Amino acid sequence: xxxxxxxxxxxxxxxxxxxxxxxxxxTPPPSTVTITSAAxxxxxxxxxxxxxxxxxNPAVPPSKDAAAVESALRIEGEKRFRTNCGRCHMAxxxxxxxxxxxxxxxxRVRAALTDEDMRLILHYMTQ
Amino acid sequence: MLFSASYHGDSKxxxxxxxxxxxxxxxVLAQQAVGLLLLFGMALGPRLVAQTPVLNEVKPIxxxxxxxGFIATLDSNEPHLGPIVTPVVLVPLGQRWLxxxxxxxxxxxxxxPGQSGFHGQFQKGVDYAQLDFIANPYITVTVxxxxxxFNIYNERLYPVWIRDLQTDPLILPIGIGPSNASNGAMLRxxxxxxxxxxxxxxxxxxxxxxxxxIDSARFAGGRAGIFIPKTRLEFGGSFQHSLQDERSxxxxxxxxxxxxxxxxxxxxxxGRSFQGSGYWGxxxxxxxxxxxxxxxxxxxxxxxxxxxxxxxxxxxTSLFPVDLKMFEFGVNYYVIDGLKATSSxxxxxxxxxxxxxxxxxLTYRFVFPLGDAWR
Lengths: 127, 375
Known about the structure:
heterodimer, A: mainly alpha, B: mainly beta, Porin, 16-stranded antiparallel β-barrel, 3 helices, 18 strands, 52% strand, disordered N terminus
């Protein structure tokens, strides 16, 4: 009974993991998703400077496009920071970029942050 | 820490025959399963990493971080002084490697009859010393000594600067092995499987180690959780199978919820093993929305915890001598980022007599870069 339970638990976990990874391989990479969603958020805004990102408007200079994406990434990063870090502890103040890069790698392992969350939080915390 | 009870499993001779063969088979199967998962992670690693563009090119730096605290406790009118320092060293290597280790230096000082002042022994240990390899966005491989991922308190809420109440939950010893850690290998990770929720998991195998300061038991297990960012709700379960002594199973459940509308944290755990069972639920409310005395109250947090534990079937192996019920109430004041003043009152109800537990303390989290942090 114990042997079967144990075996099926591990086989089940392995199968779930395999299916998840295969499913993820068919979706766009996390950063692309983030940038797309961040850009679409920028596009939905009433701010004309942010609403031009994915409209391919030739009249808008590329620097404005970059600023809009940057702004959207920062907002998304802050949101992920509040959502994830606050689950266990008070969200800390910002640290120097290289300190934050080490700390976020530690937290990725410790708190099982997703790759996307880690990158966006690091981006926000190093601005 | 307070109220923690460690289980040091004695290796008994196994009765010959079917039971022994069965246990060996389970052990082999567990090792093979972990091995397969390791191979799986390694094989997919480079391909998946190549798909993920790097958003930040910040080079991480080694860190000395951790926490220090001084907790005074009045337990049934017996005073205890508890200085504690838990330094953490982080050494990132390249893009995907991390060496991390945490030491634990603490003492429980008490008054000795006939002597003045407080006396006690200095205790030290290695909480974890592990090498992490981020194989791909879904799998991190860990080898070495690591905190046993059974429920969430041991791994995520244990440090004195994080915990809202300085006393350990009664059921903390369930499923985490001796000295709260395992020596072996682990696969873990977190990833989005659907736009509305993430999954996190950990599967591990631990070997029997009897060396002082780094002891561990022989077991295998796993934990899986679902996190819903939109509601800030996380819940999950843990399972562990012991591969020594009674060959018993342990399981647990955990949940965390932080509603967006309130500065409130709610956490709960349930654990069950042959050594005993129990649960705890905790709520912490930050007074940042109170319209009066904003300057002071926004740093203040009220905490309450209710917990209950039930003794195991055999008194020899039970983690708890009797059934216990405990209610605690605490007030924390966050002086600055990382520095916290903490206090609590708890009432323990037990069949052999009730008692009060008071705590008062100061905790601090420190971070020192070991190099130029700005370059």
